[in-house]
Amino acid sequence: MNCQKKHSTYFISANAGANLCSCVCIMISLFISLVISSPTVFSQEQNSSSTAPHATTQSWPMFRGNPHLTGVAVSSLPKKLALRWRFKLEEAITSSAAIVNNTVYFGCDDEYLYALDLQTGSMKWKYHAKDFIQASPTIVSGKVIFGDDSGTMHAVDAKTGKGLWTYETNGQIISSANVFGDTVIVGSYDGFIYCLKIADGSLAWKAETESKVHATSAVADNQVLSVACDESLHVLDASTGKSIREVSIGSPAGASAAVVGSNVYIGTYGNQIIGVDWKTGTRRWTFEDPDRQFPFMSSAAVTEKLAIVGGRDKRLRAIDLNTGKVRWTFPTKGRIDSSAVIVGQRVFFGSNDGNIYAINIETGKETWRFETGAPVSASPAVAAGCLVIGTQDGVLYCFGEKK
Questions:
Q1: Angle, CA 226 vertex, CA 307 and CA 394 arms, to 5°
Q2: Max CA-CA distance within the chain?
Q3: Domain residue limits, the chain
Q4: Coil, strand, or helix at residue 41?
Q5: What pTM did the predictor assign?
Q6: Which residues contact 158 (CB under 8 A, 6 or more apart)?
Q7: Distance (Å, rounded) from C-alpha 127 to C-alpha 114?
Q8: Cα dist. 156→107, 119, 145, 284, 286 in Å?
Q9: For every residue of 317-356, which 3-state class applies, written as one string?
Q10: Beta strands in 148-242, from DSSP E residues, in sequence order
Q11: pLDDT in tens, 190-217
Q12: Is residue 242 packed enough to be buried (19+ CB in 10 Å), middle (13-18) or exposed (0-12)?
């Protein structure tokens, strides 16, 4: 990842205050009961747009599973994973898959977006883009939305593979689209963050940073949280794109920000993992291994207690969210750019050593591995009892219950 600064202009706006309204006691009681019954791990999702895609037991609709980019699956996986099918292509698969309506969607370096049957691995359709597809697809409103290396955003009919619209940026797109209301938000190597209408691809707004935007933007509390190569976390109004806050992170970053409440957790190209209160701009803690100075390109998977982050020093780490201290470290024999996914008490990820691993989240001990024979930089997608992931030798694997 090559990050260089350029000139930019920012717009400033204040947070809009929330209006309070009175209600009768019976409504207060109902509201309290609903809050109490909500799962605490996903409590940060309650302020996201109601139309935004979220992982369910049957779906994994976008990179990291939800707008907060937490990398936590809702679906379970069997205790012993078996290979269900493999789909072979001639070029590398670094695009992480999405799973919706029993269909797997993913991009490939052969310039095609593919749709496969989740149960059989048979191809339903393929769509020709303009260049390599490293970005992960996002499924929303019956459309598959993704960017390619030519800088083009595409919207494709999820059922038929028919192209619906395109939008041209002026730089490579590796960032995956996030969703806010009736729009998608994506970063480009031209230094802009774009907000496009889902219906027709028209521009709602764009915001300029000082360098390339590699990471996927998070969306929380009607705000966009975007990490760029200009060493900043950009907090933008999701409706207008106007800057609310710019937080220095001390280094370029290609890993996406994972959101838990008012905090984000980011791995940087400056060999650090940081915890930042994005609502105040305060850095809570910084982790840096003094003996292993390597970048972090893997996006964090987060619970309310831990951040799980892979590094180019070939280690997967569990970091305590309160203290920034390491709970455990798991070594592999290759750099880890694959972003981990948490499934119950297990963590799944790939490594450039050619293995896909499962690690116990409490102990950091290995519970399963599968040797692919090729580097794995894509991230897992988990839904409907299946785990899907691609490799750099062009194979997409699906694991689940033994047939």
A1: 70
A2: 63
A3: 53-397
A4: helix
A5: 0.88
A6: 100, 101, 103, 105, 115, 139, 142, 143, 144
A7: 7
A8: 12, 22, 7, 41, 41
A9: EEEECCCCCEEEEEECCCCCCCCCEEECCEEEEECCCCEE
A10: 152-157, 163-168, 178-180, 183-187, 192-197, 203-208, 218-220, 223-227, 232-237
A11: 999 999 999 999 999 999 999 999 999 9
A12: middle
Encoded tokens for 123: 């191809």
Which strands, in side-by-side order, build the sheet including 218-220?
218-220, 223-227, 232-237, 243-248
* Tokens 């309506």 found at: 101
**Phi–psi pair at 27, nearest 5 degrees:** -75, -35
Residue 2's pLDDT band, with cuts at 50, 70 and 90, is: low
Place of tokens 């280690």: 315
Alpha helices in 164-224 (DSSP H): none
Tell me the per-residue pLDDT of 258-308, one tens digit each, with 9 for 90 and over.
Answer: 999 999 999 999 999 999 999 999 999 999 998 999 999 999 999 999 999
In CATH, which of 2.130.10.10, 3.40.50.300, 1.10.390.10, 3.40.47.10 is domain 53-397? 2.130.10.10
Q: Distance between CA atoms of 45 and 28, rounded to whole angstroms? A: 21
Segment 166-188, tens digit of pLDDT:
999 999 999 999 999 999 999 99
Neighbours of 365 (CB within 10 A): 10
Rounded Cα gap, residues 362 and 345, in angstroms: 7
- Of 390, 401, 364, 379, give the one whose Cα is nearest residue 73: 379
Give the C-alpha separation, 302 to 339, whole Å: 11
- Alpha carbon distance 335, 332 (integer Å): 8
